[in-house]
Write a structure and sequence with these properties.
Elements: H1 14-31, H2 40-66, H3 92-108, H4 111-140, H5 142-150
Helix pairs in contact: 1-3, 1-4, 2-3, 3-4, 4-5
Amino acid sequence: MAKDKKTAGVIAPPPIIFLALLLAGVELDVLVPAPFLNDVVQAVLGSALIAMALGLVGWCIWLFRRAETPVEPYKPTLHLVESGPYGWSRNPIYLALVVAFLGAAFAIDTLWLFALAPLLVAALHWGVILREERYLDELFGKAYGAYCQKVRRWI
């Protein structure tokens, strides 16, 4: 159980980071089109990646609700979630955001999203994940340290 009500202090809610970069990529594509494919396979691949990402996010939200802890990083964490996808990644929701971003790149056929994907990863890593890790380490101490020893940050 959490010791206090402090939050991680992330730079912005991760879905906002995702949407800002997605909109930037779409706008760049309107200004300077950068298609790379034009095929049904591309749309199917993009849709499949987005669907998998949404399924993973839904599963994670369900696990957080079952554990009675908020999923939003700007609210105090009450419990660690270590089951389901959190058994193989400490950040499956952020991994899903990156997969959905790449799926969108395929689905809307723009290289701009591939170019912006490293910025999404960097913003999530330095602006969200590292801040959350410090917070969770302060909050849960040895239990969180043990979890970090057995589960990777991304995959």
